[in-house]
Structure formats: C-alpha cells, structure tokens
Amino acid sequence: MTAVPVPHRVVARRAETADTVTLRFEPVAAALPEFLPGQFAMVHSFGRGEIPVSVSSVQATGGLAHTVRSVGAVSDGLCSARVGDVVGIRGPYGTPWEPERARGRDVVVVAGGIGFAPLRPLILAVLAEPAAYRRVNILIGARTPGDLIARAEVASWATAYTGITVDQPEVDWRGDVGVVTQLLGRAHFEPEETTAFVCGPEPMIRATSRELAHLGVPRDQVQVSLERNMRCATGHCGHCQLGPLLVCQVGPVVDWERAEPLLSVREL
Ligand SMILES: Cc1cc2nc3c(=O)[nH]c(=O)nc-3n(C[C@H](O)[C@H](O)[C@H](O)COP(=O)(O)OP(=O)(O)OC[C@H]3O[C@@H](n4cnc5c(N)ncnc54)[C@H](O)[C@@H]3O)c2cc1C
Ligand code: FES
After folding, report:
1. Are 180 and 165 in contact (CB under 8 A)?
2. Which residue ranges does the record assign to the FAD-binding FR-type domain (predicted)?
C-alpha cells in the first residue's frame, strides 16, 4: 500500500444511474498493489479532496474500477470526471471479503443501494468458481428502479436465486416492493450451512444481519462492510473510530459477531 496518491487516468466511464458513475482507471506510471474485493482506496479529486471508495472491480479481473454515488463535493467531483482525466488513488486499504470461508456452503449476498458496488467483485469471484460453493443467492434493494446499478449484468448471473426489491416503485415496475429482508424467505439456503455478505446503509445492515442470525446463520458467518468517515486510512487520525475499533484498520469488512454490539450501542 502507498500513503501517497498515485496518479491514475480515467480510461472508461459508465453512468449507472442519475447520480452514480463507474470509473475504470489505469495508472499513469507506477501501478498500485493488487486490490482484493471488499478493500477500499482513498481517491483524490484534485481541488476537491479525498474520500474512501471501495473497489467495484479489481485489477486481476476487469481492471481497477470504482463506482461512486454523488452525495457531496468530492464524490461529485469524481462523478464529473471524464475519460482522460487524472485522479490520485492510494491503497489498497482495509480488510477484504473472505469468500474462502464460504467454500462448500450456501452463499447469501445482500446489497442495499450503493452497497452493491463493493459486493460486485466478490460476486464475480464466487460465480467464477461454481463448483466451490453450494447455492448462490443475490438479494438487492434500492430506493427506486432508477437507482438499481448494473441491472443487465445482474440479470446475466446464474444463481440459485436473484431477488430485487425497491422502496418506491415507478409506474412500469412489476417487481417486488419493500425492504430487502423480505426476499430472504424466497432464497435457497440452509442457515447453519450458509455464509452471508452484507453491504448497504447501516439500518439495512443491522436489520439484515439480525434476520440472518434469527434464521440460524452463525453470526461469525455473516460478513458486513462498515462505513465511517475516514481521513488518513492508516490508523493515525481517529476519524473512523467505532467504539474501540478503528474501522480503517480492522474493517471495513468484519463479522456481524464483532459489529453487532458496536452498532447496537450507536442505536441507543
Ligand atoms: C470503506 C468505505 C467505502 C466506501 N465505498 C463507497 C463506494 O464504493 N461508493 C460510494 O459512492 N461511496 C462509498 N463510500 C462513501 C463515500 O466515502 C462518501 O460518500 C464520501 O466520503 C462523501 O464525501 P463527499 O465529499 O462527496 O460528501 P460530504 O459532503 O463529505 O458528505 C455528503 C453526505 O454524505 C455523508 N457521508 C460522508 N461520508 C460518509 C460515510 N463514510 N458514510 C456515510 N455517510 C457519509 C455526510 O454525512 C453528508 O450527509 C465509502 C465509504 C467508506 C468508509
Ligand atoms: S481514517 Fe484515520 S484512523 Fe482510520
């Protein structure tokens, strides 16, 4: 990993939704070490600042890419980047998903909103080895149909079950409406033999992980990705503190067994 932003050029740009863009990068000169699915980079938009963004594609499969939702100054700067523009990227940082712990087991992936992006390279890694896993289930929730990312790609994936639900349907929406946890009842998995991967807004992570645990999925087999404000990403500034944990050091991916008491305290 490097603590200094390394110049990267935007080589492809895809608008995913009205406010979300996927940018693929190539190094201008020196390359960064390989990222693993679940890890994040600090991405620097020149003149605006730097934010943590997970990888939505890794160098080994498809090239380094980030999927960014515009919510403020820096993310907006990144979403406005064009092919040929240069940004600074440092990393890899943080803990990756651990698909090896799911080998031989059923897999349940639950994504909420932009939380789909960090899960995408994990899903690709799991689907690339169909013999290594039992039934793969992908459950996706979004605010509206227009907020769904990579719909065509999702539709092309061979899974035991893929479910999509939205909070607010549009007139031509024929799919499910409501919270993503309601899809768990239709997924194909034996809870004790299941490993789950969950990423999305914190209330969604809490509700989903609790429901998985209630159904019988071991709490140490539920991997969640936590979001905290980050500045250094190297364990020095304390911005990402969650209870006794520095999320940039022990996260963002942690077991629900470890995350639950910390997120419950914040709820009080
Ligand atoms: C490990 C990690 C991975 C991330 N991966 C992605 C990703 O793949 N794609 C993506 O679009 N975003 C991702 N984010 C969130 C992203 O970092 C924030 O959206 C960004 O920092 C906002 O900065 P800004 O300057 O654009 O907006 P700001 O003006 O800083 O913030 C705009 C709004 O977003 C809220 N906000 C800022 N940072 C966070 C945060 N970390 N968590 C929750 N709310 C926040 C602020 O409170 C404010 O309401 C990730 C965050 C972390 C910690
Ligand atoms: S972001 Fe600075 S300590 Fe984690």
Report:
1. yes
2. 3-99
Atom of ligand 2 nearest to the CA of 248: 4
pLDDT tens string 115-165: 999 999 999 999 999 999 999 999 999 999 999 999 899 999 999 999 999
Measured from the CA of 66, which atom of ligand 1 is nearest?
Answer: 8
Which residues have CB under 6 Å of ligand 2? 230-233, 235-240, 246, 248
- Residues 238 and 113 grouped into a single domain: yes
Is the shortest distance between the CB of 40 and ligand 1 below 6 Å?
A: yes
Domain assignment present for residue 1? The answer is: no
Give the CATH number for residue 57: 2.40.30.10
Q: Is the CB of 12 under 6 A from ligand 1?
A: no
